[in-house]
Design brief:
24% strand; 17 strands; 308 residues; 9 helices; 38% helix; alpha/beta; 8-stranded mixed sheet
Length: 308
């Protein structure tokens, strides 16, 4: 079976944690350990979020700008792909050796084509970086940042998040997967690029990782899109007294719940949208759950299942 595993930011850095090397290693090691049962018997591509990491890189970029010229957001996206991809590859290789699994792992810095006229450039919605208090957020607003309340979890900076159109390296990824190589690709949603005069050019923005993962899954004709996030299920009325687990839904039901406003813009909404898109273009199953439940979810014992 061919599976795209989309790792959420919580698989790499949890809310409230500082981005230290030791914390990243601890979380990534735990995530990779959870992935081993899936990797053993399937062809796998792993994508990952970069919300906290690219936000921290942007802060470093700004602080250092008095001595070092700033880099644009697309370049920071490439940096975050290499940063997280390297650690994922390292820990995956360690787990494979520990479990005597003979598989190769390759990390591919990935470009994703977007439309330069995408309305997202006029309406930034993608949260990046750490969570702030309301007081801290007010100070950032005065510095020109666009800040939102991220699904009731705290205040975060938002940037443009254009929709993915095409994975530039899709043919390379497909060839590697067919050779049974574990591929880490589309990190942070991929580096957003546009065409200008027949040439590729990077553009500032952060593509949603789940939408990019759906695009990737369609490109390689994956069977399953496995979205790993910070909650074990998708919910109706999330965070309210009448919160209800969704164990299974079809595309029609998912669309209804979307329209009814059950899924947060910066959290579950893009996951559901990505799942619908994947299923309508040939995918067989979409599963949403926490990393620790991923193997059980693939067997139908945990998580939210979405079907056509």
């Amino acid at each position: 079976m061919k599976i795209v595993i989309a790792l959420g930011g919580n698989s790499i850095l949890k809310k409230g944690e500082r981005q230290s090397y030791s914390t990243l290693i601890k979380n990534i090691k735990s995530t990779c350990r959870n992935l081993v049962p899936i990797i053993m018997n399937n062809k796998v591509v792993i994508s990952h979020g970069n919300g906290p990491e690219i936000g921290y890189l942007a802060i470093q970029n700004e602080i250092a700008s008095v001595k070092v010229p700033k880099m644009p957001l697309d370049v920071l996206g490439a940096e975050s792909q290499a940063l997280i991809g390297y650690l994922l590859e390292e820990q995956l290789n360690n787990q494979l050796r520990e479990n005597k699994i003979k598989r190769l792992v390759a990390t591919l810095v990935t470009q994703v084509l977007v439309n330069k006229k995408d309305k997202a450039f006029r309406n930034p919605t993608k949260p990046i970086g750490p969570f702030y208090t309301k007081k801290e957020s007010e100070k950032l607003k005065k510095r020109g940042y666009i800040i939102i309340n991220d699904a009731g979890r705290g205040y975060r900076r938002v940037v443009a998040s254009p929709k993915p159109v095409k994975i530039i390296e899709k043919d390379i990824i497909k060839k590697l997967v067919e050779k049974n190589i574990i591929v880490i690709a589309c990190g942070g949603g991929g580096i957003p690029v546009v065409t200008a005069g027949g040439k590729l050019k990077g553009i500032e923005g952060v593509i949603d990782k789940d939408l990019a993962s759906s695009c990737l899954g369609k490109s390689i004709k994956a069977d399953v899109l496995l979205i790993l996030t910070g909650v074990p299920y998708a919910y109706l009325n999330y965070g309210k007294k009448n919160q209800k687990i969704i164990k299974k839904m079809n595309v029609k039901e998912a669309r209804k719940y979307l329209n009814d406003g059950h899924f947060g813009v910066g959290s579950m909404k893009p996951k559901i949208e990505a799942g619908i898109d994947f299923l309508l273009h040939g995918g067989k199953r979409v599963i949403i759950t926490e990393p620790r439940f991923c193997a059980d979810a693939l067997r139908g014992k945990k998580g939210t299942l979405i079907i056509r």
